Amino acid sequence: MSELVVAFEEYLSINKSLDAHTIESYIGDIVQLEASAGKSLLSLESSDILSFLGSFDNKRTLNRKLSSINSFFHFCHKLDFSDKKIKIPMAKIPQNLPKYLSFEEIMRGVGIIDRTATTGLRDYALILFLYASGCRISEALSMQRRDISQGWLKIRFAKGEKERMVPIAPIALEAVENYLKAAGIASSYVWTNYRGGLLSRISAFKIVKKYLGVSPHVLRHSFASALIIGGADLRVVQELLGHSSLITTQIYTHIQKENLAETMNRYHPLREQS
Question: Which residues are designated catalytic?
Fold first, then answer.
């Protein structure tokens, strides 16, 4: 990598506090752009970038590349590596409604876990914890024991520059405590494999998929959806999820509208007049 890309990598890690997986994606996109254009990054024009982006049909992939490229040129302009201020607007994507599981579906899934084994206690605790906290899986796996105190979780490795505090349901905390007691592992991290090493993203995905048939991220959606259905304010949900913009959280408003409609149909006196 060029010295400029290395500096960008350090900026993402130190200044922006992004997780290693996100940084790897950003750097990969920038290296791919430079290789495709066949010239140095600072000599690129908007036309070079658009030519590169034109090779991607999937709008989600396109927007991820755009996010990386815009972040890179913002970094270059901010630190005076370049006087160009390049920013290309994101492609519009038809918004898919987030998939989520109901409380009953989640409890039915964890009900089949064999909790006589340490791994079973861990799997049970992990699923309940993800549902109780709304954590991104990267945040959960980075969590250390000291991050849980008096019923609250301090998320230190949040996306972007933010830290946030999230209250955790007692049943999830009890499950975590039972797992840690049974595991007897000295690691400062909470989620470990059978060898005592840090649990990987792939392993966490397999655990949730095995019992619930979905990815860990669906539990994050399920957390948010449960709060919205229960009547939580959208801004509170935004804070708990760690979204920097309310626009991101607004994907859950369809659930709020559906719940309002159901409530009206069930309780309004005119329901019986139709």
Answer: 136, 159, 217, 220, 243, 252
